[in-house]
Amino acid sequence: MTDLAHARAEDHAVPVPLTTRKDWSSDQEVRWCPGCGDYSILAAVQMLMPELGVRRESTVFLSGIGCAARFPYYMNTYGLHSIHGRAPAIATGLAATRPDLDVWVVTGDGDALSIGGNHLIHALRRNINITILLFNNQIYGLTKGQYSPTSEVHKVTKSTPFGSLEQPFNPMSLALGAEATFVARTHDMDRKHMMEVFRRAHAHQGASFVEIYQNCNVFNDGAFEAITGKDHRADMLIPLVQGEPIRFGAEGQHGVVMRTDGTVEIVDTATVGESALLVHDEHRDNPGLAFQLSHLAAGPTEPTPIGVFRDVDRPEYGTEMNRQVDHVIERRGTGDLRALLRSGSSWTVS
Amino acid sequence: MSDTSIDQHPSQLLDRVVIRFAGDSGDGMQLAGDRFTTSSAILGNDLATFPDFPAEIRAPAGTLAGVSAFQVHISDHNISTPGDAPNVLVAMNPAALRANLGTLPPGATIIVNVDAFEERNLAKAGYEVSPLGDGSLSAYTVYEVPMTSITTEVSKDAGVKPRDAERSKNFFALGLISWLYTRPVEATVSWINERYADKPLVREANQRALKAGFHFGETAELFESAYEVRPAELPPGEYVNITGNTATAWGLIAASVRSGLPLFLGTYPITPASDILHELSKHKEFGVRTFQAEDEIAGIGAALGASFGGALGVTTTSGPGVDLKAEMIGLAINLELPLLIVDVQRGGPSTGLPTKTEQADLLHAMYGRHGEAPLPIVAPKTPSHCFAATVEAVRLAVTYRTPVILLSDGYLANGTEPWRLPDVEDLPVIDPGFATSTNHVDREGHEVFWPYLRDEDTLARPWAPPGVAGLEHRIGGLEKEDGSGNVNYDGLNHERMTRLRAAKIAGIARDIPLTELDDPDGAADLLVIGWGSTYGAIAAGVQRTRARGHKVAQAHLTHLNPFPADLGDVLVRYRKVLVPEVNLGQLSRLLRAEYLVDAVSFTQVKGVPFRAAAMEAAILELINASGADAAAGEPPGPLPPTELADGLLPDHGKVSQR
Predict the structure, then answer these.
(1) Do A317 and A98 touch, CB atoms closer than 8 A?
(2) Cis preceding-peptide flag for A149 (omega within 30 of 0)
(3) From B308, which residue of chain A is nearest by alpha-carbon distance?
(4) Rama region for A194: left / alpha / beta (φ>0; ψ in -120 to 50; rest)
(5) B residues 553-612 lying closer than 8 A (beta carbon) to A
(6) Which residues on chain A are in Cβ contact (under 8 Å) with B36?
(7) Is B236 in the A-facing interface, judged by CB distances under 8 Å?
(8) A4–B310 CB contact, under 8 Å
(9) Residue A83 contacts B where some CB pair is shorter than 8 Å
(10) What is the pLDDT of residue B641?
């Protein structure tokens, strides 16, 4: 831990003051388009913060570029609105040197998966102690409507008038493939679910990755309507609940089973029997099954799992980095600059 | 090792000598040169070194592409360059001879490993007949020494396989040259003991080879006598021999200690900067955190994140990395946070010459970002000066809340010189001056924190790392309102902020030393002005022309942005201004643009430092062309024992007058 982190930790011997949502809202006017899904995500975060028992001064929101990236301006915490795609890299230096801070990274599908893809996967594999909220609206909003790396193939946009030719990323699969230790999905139409997933992500030690299906009502309206619309949710969202059989539908009439080849499929619960359903285990060390679940739906038009896909323990980078420093200091004593300069073969001229 | 004592045979005194060890990339020439340098440093010589190696780790053995060389200049007086031309070339194979022959002046000594001069190696080096037998080396004194066979022979009964034993031949060469120049080998013996403690056979073979080389010199009656280069009269103090990269790493640690800021290095490996990472990663006892990032951008990004958190954020790189970091540097300029970017320049563009030196990133450092994005630039002038220059760069970064670019280069990075260790207490104290309380009262009468309310004197904004209640604030790459730091798109505000950022950097001129000028009697008509690693060559060239009776002034810039406050006044005092640079004329452009002086550019970009002789020739050419010389017409005086005149080389670069 750095000196500054030590000092701040000592300052905080006093109890965390009680706060309300208002305390976490900055004085800046929110400037997203009316009706944007970002508003409900902002509300969910601002409402969650008082419940987390954390300090405003120890909380930092970082972002890159894009509509979502304006998020830090609206939080009454420390904040840094940086450049396109690089927030996970900046967060790495901050989180590693200041383990006393809560570091959140707010990003979008273009920011995290296109220009910033490299930083995202490396932050996940290193298990940097940050909470990443990826607002996925499957479109470029701030640049006014080009396809994104999560846009469905054949999508017609301003930059693809004859349809996009590209296979989209599946953010859950990508994060699992990058050795992420916490991987979850939620959506902007369910504040309670968002708050619960964010709470879990914040509690996780290491890198937490949360994909939020977020509606862009201007450039990609209704992209998730088929699964998040109030009337379809029960049949189209598959809640993942730790230790519970994976089932959905108003009466739990649908379920998920594993085939003999290791893939998963949706079945009628009644047909296979409840005991045949796959029991969700987010702590499973092998990410294979979580990966299968991430591929259950080809896109947000088919029944889609939401909730925590994976939550496993692995050493967190900053803690390990600081432990190494502490260990060397313990062994060698605190560095002596005079001795360092004489550590080679020195000679004296008199 | 009393059997290698050095006082038994007669020796001739020399004031200086330049030795070049050359061989295959795998022959251990850098190691031999480095050990020879260390012995000479301990003996008290002044010295300068120039490692010169290919970009390939192991080019095909025996080829010209694979030749690796180490040049060391040792002297009994103050010297500033690794020497123009070797007096002695040690050539471990035909390729090493062929690649280096062009640099040898007539009369030089060549010591070859004659065992390597067989048909295959000769062919690989492009020799149809052996140069040892065709008279082509008649201008030189050539010693043919069977280095490989003796080295193999002496380890025969030690249980070392001949193939392995042969690898110790660099130590044989080192032993031989140590005898020839009366260097003690005890330090190298201890070094071998320590270095190969867990490899007894390698240790034994190396020691035997070293001794064999030493004894060969003494007993083979090949050499007329040994030579001696007495200690130089250096100012009293404690010295170490140091490379620029190590000095930079130690400067960073010193700056961390003197500022109380924990050092965080975010970086990506790149030649020739990686050794700074290697060195820093060893010193965690200073709280140093090194982070090897996924790419150049993440390296500087993590460093900037650490700075935001109140650490000393640093990134190290070379030219291609600076290209990639440009956007993040712009962000740091806008955020007004301390950050140090160390650019160890190499030949460009693109991948260019990764292991060769150049100083062609100056204009990139000045202007290589979109928008009006000024930042301070500091350039060390010698390997050991990297230490002080790094501390200075950090001082500016922290005091003015700005990214700073330190322009080192490949020559400084790997070159060495003796460094008189500074007193730690004399190093500047750097005050981070973190914000601790609110600094403004808003219209409703609330105490608030304005992140862009500037210090009236320095124009620096407050640095408020997260963790202090009441100072929560948001900053970013969007233009900010003067004072409050809120996002602001207003044109008038943007103009004000743009000018404030520029004024902040320009104002640093009040806080840096005046121009470093060497004009002994103030009577010179010609000023030679440079920056960075050309210092040694310029100083040597100026000394030579002065020795010929000319009056020549030298100025050298450590601060490239802003320039020293008096630079304009200094420049106009001289009728002629010569600007030598290892680029195509970048400082000269800046001087012409800034001060409207008729600066004459003298440039070369050959991947190597200037030679003193080339510098002398360029200065004389300008003197003769312009008549700018108080001493014109006087006969040249005798040359003092400075950097000896090695003869004017035909390829001394280009003087161009725009």
Answers:
(1) no
(2) no
(3) A94
(4) alpha
(5) none
(6) none
(7) yes
(8) yes
(9) yes
(10) 44
How far are the Cα atoms of B22, B120, B145, B148 from residue B115, in angstroms, in the given order?
15, 12, 8, 6
CB-CB contact of B465 with B338 (8 Å):
no
What tokens appear for B642 in the block?
A: 């400075």
Tell me the β-bridge partners of B557: B531
* Per-residue tokens: B247: 């000095």
Distance between CA atoms of residues A44 and B170, nearest Å: 69
Q: Which two tokens stand for residue A1?
A: 């831990």
Q: How far is CA A8 from the centre of its chain?
A: 26
Q: Which residue of B has its CA nearest to A77?
A: B472
Contact A67, A61 (CB under 8 A): no
Asked if the Cβ–Cβ distance from A73 to B304 is below 8 Å, we say no
B247, B250, B254, B260: CA torsion to nearest 10: 140
CA nearest to A92 within chain B: B302
What is the side-by-side strand order in the sheet with A78-81? Answer: A237-240, A304-311, A182-187, A208-213, A131-136, A102-108, A59-63, A78-81, B474-476
User: Does the predicted interface ipTM exceed a cut of 0.90?
Assistant: yes
Do the Cβ atoms of A82 and B187 come within 8 Å? no
Under 8 Å between Cβ of B43 and B414 = no
Give me the residue label for tokens 């790149």: B270
Q: Is B172 on the interface with A (CB under 8 A)?
A: no
By C-alpha distance, the chain A residue nearest B281 is A325
Helix (H, G, I), strand (E, B) or coil at B154: helix
Tell whether B421 lies on the interface with A, counting CB pairs under 8 A.
yes
d(CA A116, CA A89): 9
Chain A residues near residue B486 by CB distance under 8 angstroms: 28
CB B397 within 8 A of CB B404: yes
* Residues of B with Cβ-Cβ distance to A345 under 8 angstroms: 38, 41-42, 187, 240-241
Residues of chain A in contact with residue B38, where contact means CB-CB under 8 angstroms, are: 345
Among the listed residues B583, B82, B587, B557, the one whose alpha carbon sits nearest the alpha carbon of residue B358 = B583
| pTM score | 0.93
* Cβ separation B469–A56 shorter than 8 A: yes
List, in sequence order, every beta strand (DSSP E) within B42-140: 46-52, 67-75, 88-91, 109-113
Judged by CB atoms closer than 8 Å, whether chains meet at B283 and A340 is answered as yes
* Alpha carbons A241 and A245: distance in angstroms, whole number: 8
Walk along chain B (658 residues) in steps of 10 and give the mean pLDDT of each run: 50 92 93 94 91 86 93 93 94 96 93 96 95 94 96 90 90 96 91 94 95 92 86 92 97 98 98 98 98 98 98 98 98 98 98 96 98 98 98 98 98 95 97 97 95 98 97 97 97 98 98 97 96 96 95 98 98 97 98 97 96 95 76 45 39 46
Cα angle vertex B449, ends B448, B453, to 5°?
A: 125
Amino acid at the residue B405: I
Strands A78-81 and B474-476: parallel
Nearest-neighbour CA in chain A from B255: distance (Å): 10
* Eight-class DSSP state of A293: H
Interchain contact A58–B (C-beta under 8 A): yes
Q: Is A273 left (phi over 0), alpha (psi -120 to 50) or beta?
A: left
Please tell me the distance from the alpha carbon of residue A212 to that of residue A135, in angstroms, as a whole number: 5
Nearest Cα residue to B151 out of B72, B241, B212, B62: B212
Q: What is the pLDDT of residue A11?
A: 63
Distance CA A151, CA A139 (A): 6
**Which chain B residues have a beta carbon less than 8 Å from that of A91?**
305
Q: What are phi and psi of B187, to 5 degrees?
A: -60, -40
Count the Cβ atoms, other than its own, within 10 Å of residue A131. Answer: 24
Are B238 and B421 contacting, i.e. CB atoms less than 8 angstroms apart? yes
CB contact under 8 Å between A98 and B257, yes or no, is no
- Residue A59 structure tokens: 């909380």
Across the interface, which of A58, A93, A119 has its CB nearest the CB of B304? A93
Chain A contact for B433, CB < 8 A? no
